[in-house]
Design a protein that fits this description.
Number of helices: 4
Strand order of the largest sheet: 1-2
Largest sheet: 2 strands, antiparallel
Low-confidence stretches: none
Number of strands: 2
Helix content: 40-55%
Distance between the termini: 10 Å
Radius of gyration: 15 Å
Mean pLDDT: 81
Shape: globular
Strand content: 5-15%
Structural class: alpha+beta
């Protein structure tokens, strides 16, 4: 698939199958996030959560958002981008990494 086609046709989804993401594909997706451009020195960490491991994180995230719902929509695998807030461009760097992750996952 061409890069431009992927950028044009990628969509967000909120319903997931029970089929796990293959380890090789997951490694490539995370690699794409790690190679995202950054304004400063790499100020982020890409972390992976699998089904049971992220249930607590999902509940905490819902509480922060003032909700009881599942913010991960039942996904069995969740990739989280953590940024160093002391770096002035942490928001931009984290956003670029998430964009790479989403496009690579597509």
């Amino acid at each position: 698939m061409e890069t431009i086609e992927a950028l044009i046709h990628r969509r967000s989804c909120r319903k997931y199958s029970d089929r796990p993401v293959e380890a090789e594909k997951l490694a490539r997706i995370i690699e794409a996030g790690q190679y995202a451009p950054s304004v400063a020195a790499q100020s982020l960490e890409v972390s992976l959560g699998q089904a049971a491991a992220h249930n607590d994180a999902g509940q905490l995230n819902a509480q922060v958002m003032g909700s009881n719902g599942d913010p991960f929509y039942g996904a069995k695998t969740v990739v989280v981008v953590l940024v160093d807030r002391s770096v002035p461009t942490h928001l931009e760097d984290g956003s670029l990494a998430m964009g790479n992750l989403l496009n690579a996952a597509y």
